[in-house]
From TrEMBL:
CDD domains, sorted: HTH_ARSR (cd00090)
SMART domains assigned to the protein according to its UniProt record, in alphabetical order: HTH_ARSR
Record domain HTH arsR-type: where: 1-88
Protein's UniProt name: Transcriptional regulator, ArsR family
Molecular functions (GO terms): DNA-binding transcription factor activity
PANTHER family registered for this protein in UniProt: TRANSCRIPTIONAL REGULATORY PROTEIN
Alphabetical list of InterPro entries matching this protein: ArsR-like_HTH (IPR011991), HTH_ArsR_DNA-bd_dom (IPR001845), WH-like_DNA-bd_sf (IPR036388), WH_DNA-bd_sf (IPR036390)
Highest taxon above the source species: Bacteria
NCBIfam families: HTH_metalloreg
């Protein structure tokens, strides 16, 4: 089943996993150590992140390391951009209106 990026980042645990591996690869146990939920639960979260392409897993010896794939965030960035432009325009217009009222 192919999941989308929005479904993956909707969960706070998955967002925290992405934060953990944003700057360096971590093995599954190192990631799981940061949470109070079970390791199998963390593995399920990582599976979802992998299915949508936000995380890649590489094997080094017996360990599996997770690395963030930020190229997949372009879809989210593009979606957010339309709202950034909208609100920037609205706030600029409000600022202009308030300046004229002075």
């Amino acid at each position: 089943m192919r999941r989308d990026v929005f479904q993956a980042i909707a969960d706070p645990t998955r967002r925290e996993i992405i934060n953990l591996i944003a700057h360096r690869s971590l093995n599954l146990n190192s990631i799981a150590d940061n949470f109070t939920v079970s390791r199998p639960a963390i593995s399920k979260h990582i599976k979802i992140l992998t299915e949508c392409g936000l995380v890649t897993i590489t094997q080094q010896g017996r360990e599996h390391y997770c690395k963030a794939n930020f190229k997949q965030f372009k879809e989210v960035s593009d979606w957010i951009e339309q709202y950034r432009v909208f609100w920037t325009d609205k706030l600029d217009a409000l600022g202009k209106f308030l300046d004229e009222e002075k």
